[in-house]
Amino acid sequence: MTAPASGPAPGPAIVLVAPQMGENIGAAARAMLNFGLVDLRLVRPRDGWPNVKAVAAAVGATVVLDRVRVHGDLAAAIADRRYVLATTARPRDFVKPVLTLREAAVRLRAAEAAGQPTTVLFGPERTGLENDEAVLADALVTVPTNPDFGSINLAQTVLLVAYEWRQAADASPAERFEAGGARPATREELMNFFAHLERELDRTPFLSNRQQRPSMVRNLRALFLRAGPTEQEVRTLHGVVAELARRGADEAG
Amino acid sequence: MTAPASGPAPGPAIVLVAPQMGENIGAAARAMLNFGLVDLRLVRPRDGWPNVKAVAAAVGATVVLDRVRVHGDLAAAIADRRYVLATTARPRDFVKPVLTLREAAVRLRAAEAAGQPTTVLFGPERTGLENDEAVLADALVTVPTNPDFGSINLAQTVLLVAYEWRQAADASPAERFEAGGARPATREELMNFFAHLERELDRTPFLSNRQQRPSMVRNLRALFLRAGPTEQEVRTLHGVVAELARRGADEAG
To answer: What is this structure's pTM?
Structure first.
């Protein structure tokens, strides 16, 4: 999923405009790489570049740090880009579409599919992008936080953008079960277990009510069927029933 | 969007099991509140509670910190919950559905719509949840990170869960339980059944292999949890175990 250290990177370039803290640059790099983004660009980082605090905070995301490019102004940083989004936490004084993160991810994917290099802009930690910077974007992106408590940091915003971009790749159905290829039980194996369980219960007062027996049996079967047992689990259940049924007799004997 | 300091909170309770760093607890609280979650529970926090580093890292998310509850074990922390998800970064040795974050959010919303209190479990920073803890969940949740670089921290995982939960607000509540208003069993009711079953099995040779016992117990618990038993079904299961265990003795007597 990672790209080679050179050549076009997948997904949007992440542009941090005037980032203040090296820690946040490193944390942004780490957040990006978690979801396969590797193209990080810095515009006038306050503490220069390279930055040892960024390296520490990147926690091994060196493939991102190694290819960081530093630019003197935003226009240079996005000169090779076609579709540009600007993150913002507040309304702006110009007219521009505002997208949710999820909508933004769909637009990014669509632009990429059309061969357009994309990018997402992030402003300085405290102040966000200047209006003159945000206006360069095709659209604004906003994180729909709690109106009473919007307190999301730079790297977290990068994380959510990268996450949504990754999610927009495929709507492929998720996996089902873990546990190394355990084979689901066949209906025959399940029916054999039901027969075993019900045979043992018929030797107790549990199913002795003739009228209720059919519904009791159905409910027990439904319960076990809902669990979708594996073949191994059905064998375990046989063992449970056999051992429980045998136990009292052994003790009495 | 925030809830009052008392009364039922919206959305899932976030349970941090044995969190190590106060900073991470505070950052988790902040991440939660960004998306309207306020019910944070701690199981055996390493450095005790309250924790000044957590307060600093929460950056004003006091509505969350003020209602934190601390529990001695996981079972107590989730006793009042019905639908339980466990976050994990690695495969487990039992059979349980694995959901993406997005699927998890839809399931959480559906459970909430059905009146079931929900919760999401997070393990310690370095090691994640123990198998014996993860098995108590209805399903596992995994963050689909870069296979070459999965490096997402505790608060970021909480952020993504809270973000997806918030986003799922509009998604139509999916299917869930049939069976005319049958109440799903609480975790406490399920744990009582597990204790009963395992107590009876401990009186047989079935669980006598010391080395295999923990994994046998986990697999049985996973099986019954997958079925999502109702309160009535748990009572039936108690009856099944009691009757089977009693049967042989009666016959011998």
So the answer is: 0.81
